[in-house]
Amino acid sequence: MSSESSKKRKPKVIRSDGAPAEGKRTRSDTEQEGKYYSEEAEVDLRDPGRDYELYKYTCQELQRLMAEIQDLKSRGGKDAQAVEIEDRRIQSCVHFMTLKKLNRLAHIRLKKGRDQTHEAKQKVDAYHLQLQNLLYEVMHLQKEITKCLEFKSKHEEIDLVSLEEFYKEAPPDISKAEVTMGDPHQQTLARLDWELEQRKRLAEKYRECLSNKEKILKEIEVKKEYLSSLQPRLNSIMQASLPVQEYLFMPFDQAHKQYETARHLPPPLYVLFVQATAYGQACDKMLSVAIEGSVDEAKALFKPPEDSQDDESDSDAEEEQTTKRRRPTLGVQLDDKRKEMLKRHPLSVLLDLKCKDDSVLHLTFYYLMNLNIMTVKARVTTATELITPISAGDLLSPDSVLSCLYPGDHGKKTPNPANQYQFDKVGILTLRDYVLDLGHPYLWVQKLGGLHFPKEQPQHTVITDHSLSASHMETTMKLLKTRVQSRLALHKQFASLEHGIVPVTSDCHYLFPAKVVSRLVKWVTIAHEDYTELHFTKDIVEAGLAGDTNLYYMALVERGTAKLQAAVVLNPGYSSIPPIFQLCLNWKGEKTNNNDDNIRAMESEVNVCYKELCGPRPGHQLLTNQLQRLCVLLDVYLETESHDDSVEGPKEFPQEKMCLRLFRGPSRIKPFKYNHPQGFFSHR
Amino acid sequence: MEVFQALQRLHMTIFSQSVSPCGKFLAAGNNYGQIAIFSLSAALSSEAKEESKKPMVTFQAHDGPVYSMVSTDRHLLSAGDGEVKAWLWAEILKKGCKELWRRQPPYRTSLEVPEINALLLVPKENLLILAGGDCQLHAMDLETGTFMWALRGHTDYIHCLALRERSPEVLSGGEDGAVRLWDLRTAKEVQTIEVYKHEECSRPHNGRWIGCLATDSDWMVCGGGPALTLWHLRSSTPTTVFPMRAPQKHVTFYQDLILSAGQGRCVNQWQLSGELKAQVPGSSPGLLSLSLNQQPAAPECKVLTAAGNSCRVDVFTNLGYRAFSLSF
Q1: Facing B3 at nearest CB: one of A571, A663, A664
Q2: ipTM value
Q3: Do strands A673-674 and A590-592 pair parallel, antiparallel, or not at all (unpaired)?
Q4: pLDDT tens string B8-53
Q5: What InterPro entries does the entry give (chain B) (predicted)?
Q6: Do the chains contact at A545 and B249, CB–CB below 8 Å?
Q7: In what order do the strands lie in the sheet containing B287-292?
Q8: What are the CA-CA distances from residue A181 to residues A11, A165, A172, A178 (Å)?
């Protein structure tokens, strides 16, 4: 077989190397149909089933032959068997060749089959691809269609003028009514046209306006520059005029600066400042007004309040957390809240009242922002250094020097009723505890600041009123001056009284006889509680004249064995309100106004008839005159005491006073009234 | 100004009282010369409020204290600083406070105007007797207003007067310690009792002055420096000495009791035998005058009023206790 195949092959090879001719080839193919053996063509002709049967048969034959050979070989005989073996060997070779052919045929069949499938598959794939392409295109087209359908032209976004307007306004060459009425497309086009026209026109206008604006801006710039160049010139003029101002005593500049700072004052302090300055300029040259404090802090107060509130709440939250851990910080937190509530405005107004004897009353007015009240701190400075006698300790103390300037105005309670509710929140009982630090909230201070608090209900908004301040300014200033002077006068008098000398000025000498034997031995202050516990002061206490705003003193007048105790109530409103004396005489028993009509008469002489003892105009001599009169009265009392016939011995006090009558009236009163200049005593 | 008014009230002394003829009003005179009229009927009524205890009207009657007052059936006569003035009750009640007339007795001294401490009405003779600082008793005819005679005898000023109706005689007690009886018709001194000379009643440490007098025709009670004593007039002997330490400034007979008041708060009620029946405290530390409202026209206002060293007049509706006080 191999030789056959190689034979077949060879001619094919020769032919291809030989002269080229496909045509020849094909011709030769057809010629060769009869000549050459083509296995491929043979495959188509044979039946695969029969080939399979042949294959099976051949395999069987081979097996049989092999078995026979085996048998023969095993039997052993050489010759006969060798031929048979050879025979069988040749047969098996033939079978082998058949097998080979069959194998080839199978291969060729396989190859053909594969080729056919391949072809078919390719076709199918091609169709498949085509289908896919088409489908894809369909989809694409559909999308395009939908896009086209959804397409909104930009022109629909423009708000065109309505149809009627359009036909009205548009010029006919644009609107083209005949055409557009029928055709919506044309209509829209026309409308768009018109829109474009309009927009062009408006754009023109806009450009014109812009250029106008530019021009005007430039003009403004020029003028501004002109003005700003003016300012430094004016300043220089002002500077130049300063020496002139000083020369003419009109310090406008200084005042101006003050007004500048005053702008930052809170309303009540501002009212006070304005009114005080006005009053000082108009009526009282001895009054000077100034503003103290930090303007920057005042400005800082006007920063947005929400920030500070947020901070506060944050810090409160933090503090609350910490208080859960440690007790003591609760008090600290409350303390801080209190401090916050009692906070003062950083600016304060300072008033200096100068009196005739060169002593100055310095008043500093503060404004408590959260409580909406004003407070004042007072200080008295004198031209010469004062040595304070022991009993005069409270006279000029900042705490009490302005107490009860107006009756009942003790300045220990806040005048704003609304503050009570605020205090309850932070646990402040009364402002009294903080008064030393913050200053006293007197009612007249509120009035000077124009703050008016009605008594009945609390108000949240309080109006600051200039007219209220103005009406009170003059009275208050006068009262303040009188107060300072009377306190200073008392101060001096106390120094003398403590030494046992009653200082009677020369213009009051006429009130008393020349010779006064009784002497003032002691002059001390006593406490309010001690005064109320004295047995001979019950009437005064019951009449409500011994409050805790008064000052109390004890004087002791002696003559011989007689001792007269006098308890004195000094009202802060001295000397318009007289001091009140209550007496207790220890001489031959204890005599008070309860058991002796004459003691009562003596008290009446000093307390009720005080107007004659006031002395010259400001009336500062009242207390000393009263004390001197007391000594005189004691003299009269002792000397006119009727002699007890049953007791031996001379009278202790011989009568030296000239009296018309010793007793008068049902009460048998002694002659206590001194008559000047005759110098005798009579009854009232 | 409040302090001054409070001081005035604290140092006020009410010296005299007088009941109106209708019995419904009480006049009180004080040491500032003011007279206040209180409405007793209003203060005693059941709807009395605080204002009812205040005066209806107060007016300045004299320059000096009003030491004594009496009422006739139409007039209020007040005296103090040397003058006696008359006021019409009807006018005063309508708050028209203008004096009707004023008279000054003829005084001897001119250096000082003596005070008039006591006024006494003698209704039968229509006389007003005044006595006071000049140690004399002056008699004034109420119709004509002339001073008819003056009785001298006292050596020191006269505190009090009392009328002995039967004779008629006037008793006067003075600073000189004597009680003198004067006959009104003859204008002469009839009897003199020098109280301080009697040991039972004299109290030298208090003095000898006679501050108060009351008489019940046969009997007389007087007190002051000496102790309060009941005297039998005809025999001029002290029968009962009342054990009262404080000098008495006013004494009066009432029914079968003797009421006295003076230094010390209380109104004392004595039996004629000398026993202290009751001591009713008032509101003033010392009392100077007592007034019994026995006007028949107003039986509902039958009260005892006491006044003295304060601005208050105590009203006793029942002699046992102080009901309330009227106040200037």
Answers
A1: A571
A2: 0.90
A3: unpaired
A4: 888 899 999 999 988 889 999 999 999 999 998 888 888 878 888 8
A5: THOC6, WD40/YVTN_repeat-like_dom_sf, WD40_repeat_CS, WD40_repeat_dom_sf, WD40_rpt
A6: no
A7: B287-292, B304-308, B312-316, B324-327
A8: 92, 14, 13, 6
